[in-house]
């Protein structure tokens, strides 16, 4: 195990690009135009903001849901290129499968290019593994709502923390078993309930068990079924901000999703390069090769382009919905909002 | 926590993941939404506030000079949309008009300013407390920085300055600046700055300190902190110096260049305010000044963070009792209004009834008059009819008499025959005339000669018309 790992690390370092230059705060205007008085410097606020956010760091909480053995932990490890999730195979084999759905949240601090991220992976062992899986989404829904509650409590404090710790689930990867037929009733039930409280990204696990045609067909069928059942997965149509967003997201929703992924944390030599992959007698499946599977699409989507948006939708929409409901329900009085009170005041 | 939670540990990455793009993702969202920046300018009228704003942002915001005769201090906010490359800035400049102009410079100078700042905090707080809220596209009007303009006397701060700054330092980031710095010599300026800073310190005024915790900016910021208050000169006029056009003020004895750091601290102010610390000013406003306001306000309203376990509930309970109270009050007022309305309706109803009655009476009265008149007219008509009948009877009587008398005098046949002939001619030529045998008196006027030359001839002629003027209606 020792020498293999060090070799792996050495090889991995080749894949790490040059660390990003720390941005310098411009003291004199760059690119002075002909008129001496043209530049004010308002656009430096971008740099100022970026530096501040880098200093404070980011929180990101990702939940994985699916039956055991679908490769959830492997996928998360592949996504974040480190052992963020302990695989079941690594555990003591004598550990029984939990009788109910358990929620395990494991936090790590990872850094890249000067950006510090506190990543929390929330695992849900036991989901869908029982004989009777009725309401097995309830503990998960409960957990998600508890995080919203925690945040709300902090927010309504009189003396508030400068930065409220964010444990809310920003993204839930739901693993669909690659049966090739259709979604299972459990899948539909879970997604129906949870798509209203959290961003769900459905993924087709272990996609290397399907041929290209089977994959395309399966994806189409899954999309159809989700639509028929009124399940809005992330990115939700109703939150598209402008036309640009809409066209970009439409493409993702109607063509790419659900992403058919393969995960791996082992490396192999292919064409002189070291790649992450799965070795089989008939060939090596390269995880980051787009013609083999859609892992790279998922990674780019979740991490490189939509990570901030996932957090914002969680904060501005899911959390606000929870908060509004909570403030309304509590007390059982007719839902009269604070704003109505204000209106009344002004009328009187 | 019932969930298995491991301690956060640092992990090293085995490759490029890509979340280093996160700041970019975040910033690009902010860029799309745009930024707000709100500056409050406090200083005597004519001290150069508008000129400085124009110089800082390189546009002409203000065109007219402010009046010196304001009756009270009022706050005048003006919002502008600026854009530089892809950054949209919603800049609001708030002017404290009339500050320092009143004869009696009591607290009415400062309280409008404090009120304005508090109102912006209040508006934000109200939005934050709403059940359905939209904070992410809320136009932030909270004051991010207050530029306090000090008159360049060269001696010390005025008491109004100290009082004002003391009142504002817990509510807003204050950056004191010495205005019209070209009226003080370098050595005087140096002494003046020291005096000002020591007075501020001895009076416990907390001005804004440029942050020194970030290594990238710590050095420049700490240097700048030592140069406070900035001695500035503003100008939008351009003067040729050497072979360049620079913003400056031209005097007979020389040219004061705005952007020359040995002439004044304008460049330093611009660097600090815009290019280095704009974001920090915004952050401090939100995390320090606003939070303080919020805390005080909520405590004032009766909310307390007593039990850490039941915070939402205690907030909720207090909120609910207040809500009940308020609802009760509301109901009472509603009842009052309804009562008032009912009374008014009754009154109006009574009035209307009265009017109706009056109207009815009038109508009856008129009706009676009308009937009276009708009766009178009816009577008159009857009288007239009677008269007519009486007359007819007399006429008939007279005619019978005449015809009798005519028969009696049959010795004058010619005349009579003539008469008869005339009569019959006349009667025949008259269309629709009644062929009666009674005599009719024909006057000259009743004959209209058409062909004949004399009256006699006309009478005998058939083609001449006879006017019916002398004929009584009864005979037609």
UniProtKB/TrEMBL annotation, chain A:
UniProt domain Septin-type G: residue ranges: 56-329
GO molecular function, one term: GTP binding
CC per GO annotation: cytoplasm
Keyword match Ion transport: no
Location of the protein in the cell: Cytoplasm
Classification via CDD domains: CDC_Septin (cd01850)
Keyword terms of this UniProt record: Cytoplasm, GTP-binding, Nucleotide-binding
Gene3D superfamilies: P-loop containing nucleotide triphosphate hydrolases (3.40.50.300)
Chain residue ranges for the region called Disordered: 326-348
Keyword Glycoprotein assigned: no
Chief subcellular location: cytoplasm
Pfam family, one: Septin
Annotated TM spans: none
Family the entry assigns: Belongs to the TRAFAC class TrmE-Era-EngA-EngB-Septin-like GTPase superfamily. Septin GTPase family.
Entry protein name: Neuronal-specific septin-3
Species: Oxyruncus cristatus
Upper lineage: Eukaryota, Metazoa, Chordata, Craniata, Vertebrata
Automatic annotation (TrEMBL), chain B:
Keywords: Coiled coil, GTP-binding, Nucleotide-binding
Coiled coil ranges: 316-401
Biased composition (Low complexity): 402-412
CDD domains: CDC_Septin
Region feature Disordered, mapped onto this chain: 402-429
Septin-type G domain residues: 33-300
Molecular function via GO: GTP binding
Matches recorded under Gene3D superfamilies: P-loop containing nucleotide triphosphate hydrolases
Keyword field contains GTP-binding: yes
Entry's family note: Belongs to the TRAFAC class TrmE-Era-EngA-EngB-Septin-like GTPase superfamily. Septin GTPase family.
PANTHER family to which the protein is assigned, alphabetical: SEPTIN
Designated name of the protein: SEPT8 protein
The species this protein was found in: Oxyruncus cristatus
Gene: Sept8
């Amino acid at each position: 195990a020792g020498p293999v790992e060090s070799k792996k690390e050495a090889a991995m370092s080749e894949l790490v690009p040059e660390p990003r230059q720390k941005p310098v705060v411009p003291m004199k205007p760059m690119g002075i135009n002909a008129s001496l008085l043209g530049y004010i410097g308002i656009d430096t606020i971008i740099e100022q903001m970026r530096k501040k956010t880098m200093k404070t760091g980011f929180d990101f909480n990702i939940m994985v849901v699916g039956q055991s053995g679908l490769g959830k932990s492997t996928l998360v490890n592949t996504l974040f290129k480190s052992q963020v999730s302990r695989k079941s195979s690594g555990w003591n084999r004598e550990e029984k499968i939990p009788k109910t759905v358990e929620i395990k949240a494991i936090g790590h601090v990872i850094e890249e290019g000067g950006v510090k991220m506190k990543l929390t992976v929330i695992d849900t062992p036991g989901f869908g593994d029982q004989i009777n899986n009725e309401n097995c989404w309830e503990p998960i829904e409960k957990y998600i709502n508890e995080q919203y509650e925690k945040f709300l409590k902090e927010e309504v404090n009189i003396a508030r923390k400068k930065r409220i710790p964010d444990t809310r689930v920003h993204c839930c990867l739901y693993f669909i078993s690659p049966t090739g037929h259709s979604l299972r009733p459990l899948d539909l039930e879970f997604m129906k309930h949870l798509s209203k409280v959290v961003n769900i990204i459905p993924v087709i696990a272990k996609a290397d068990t399907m041929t290209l045609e089977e994959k395309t067909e399966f994806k189409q069928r899954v999309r159809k079924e989700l639509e028929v059942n009124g399940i809005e997965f992330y990115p939700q149509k109703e939150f598209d901000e402008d036309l640009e967003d809409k066209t970009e997201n439409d493409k993702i929703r109607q063509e790419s999703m659900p992403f058919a992924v393969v995960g791996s944390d082992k490396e192999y030599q292919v064409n002189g390069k070291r790649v992450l992959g799965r070795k089989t007698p008939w060939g090596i499946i390269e995880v980051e090769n787009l013609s083999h599977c859609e892992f790279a699409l998922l990674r780019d989507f979740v991490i490189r382009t939509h990570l901030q948006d996932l957090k914002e939708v969680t904060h501005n929409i899911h959390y606000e919905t929870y908060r509004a409901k909570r403030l309304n329900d509590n007390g059982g009085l007719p839902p009269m909002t604070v704003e109505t009170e204000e209106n009344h005041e002004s009328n009187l | 926590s019932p969930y298995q939670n491991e301690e956060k540990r640092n992990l090293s990455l085995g490759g490029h993941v890509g979340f280093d793009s996160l700041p970019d993702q975040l910033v690009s969202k902010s860029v799309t939404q745009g930024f707000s920046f709100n500056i409050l300018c406090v200083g005597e009228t004519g001290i150069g506030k508008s000129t400085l704003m124009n110089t800082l942002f390189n546009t002409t915001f203000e065109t007219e000079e402010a009046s010196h005769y304001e009756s009270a201090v009022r706050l005048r906010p003006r919002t502008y949309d600026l854009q530089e490359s892809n950054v949209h800035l919603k800049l609001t400049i708030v002017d404290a008009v009339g500050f320092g102009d009143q004869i009696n410079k009591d607290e009415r100078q400062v309280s409008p300013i404090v009120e304005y700042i508090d109102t912006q905090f209040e508006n934000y707080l109200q939005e934050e407390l709403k059940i359905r809220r939209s904070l992410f596209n809320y136009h932030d009007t909270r004051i991010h920085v207050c530029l306090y303009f000090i008159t360049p006397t060269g001696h010390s701060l005025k008491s109004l300055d100290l009082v004002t700054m003391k009142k504002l330092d817990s509510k807003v980031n204050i950056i004191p600046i010495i205005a019209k710095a070209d009226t003080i010599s370098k050595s005087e300026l140096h002494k003046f700055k020291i005096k000002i800073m020591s007075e501020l310190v001895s009076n416990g005024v907390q001005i804004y300190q440029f942050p020194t915790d970030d290594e990238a900016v710590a050095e420049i910021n700490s240097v700048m902190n030592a140069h406070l208050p900035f001695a500035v000169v503003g100008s939008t006029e351009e003067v040729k110096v050497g072979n360049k056009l620079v913003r400056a003020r031209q005097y007979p004895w020389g040219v004061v260049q705005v952007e020359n750091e040995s002439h004044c601290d304008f460049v330093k102010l611009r660097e600090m305010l815009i290019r280095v610390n704009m974001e920090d000013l915004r952050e401090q406003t939100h995390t320090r000044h606003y939070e303080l306001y919020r805390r005080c306000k909520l405590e004032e309203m009766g909310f307390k963070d007593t039990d850490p376990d039941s915070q939402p509930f205690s907030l909720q309970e207090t909120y609910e009792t207040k809500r009940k109270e308020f609802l009760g009050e509301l109901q009472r007022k509603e009842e009052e209004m309804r009562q008032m309305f009912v009374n008014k309706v009754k009154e109006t109803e009574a009035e209307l009834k009265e009017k109706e009655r009056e109207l009815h009476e009038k109508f009856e009265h008129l009706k009676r008059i009308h009937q009276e008149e009708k009766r009178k007219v009816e009577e008159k008509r009857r009288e007239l009819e009677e008269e007519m009948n009486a007359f007819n009877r007399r006429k008939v009587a007279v005619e019978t008499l005449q015809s009798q008398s005519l028969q009696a005098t049959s010795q004058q046949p010619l005349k009579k025959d003539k008469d008869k002939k005339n009569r019959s001619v006349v009667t025949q030529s008259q269309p629709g005339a009644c062929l009666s045998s009674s005599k009719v008196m024909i006057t000259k006027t009743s004959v209209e000669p058409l062909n004949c030359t004399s009256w006699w001839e006309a009478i005998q002629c058939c083609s001449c018309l006879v006017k019916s003027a002398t004929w009584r209606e009864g005979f037609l």
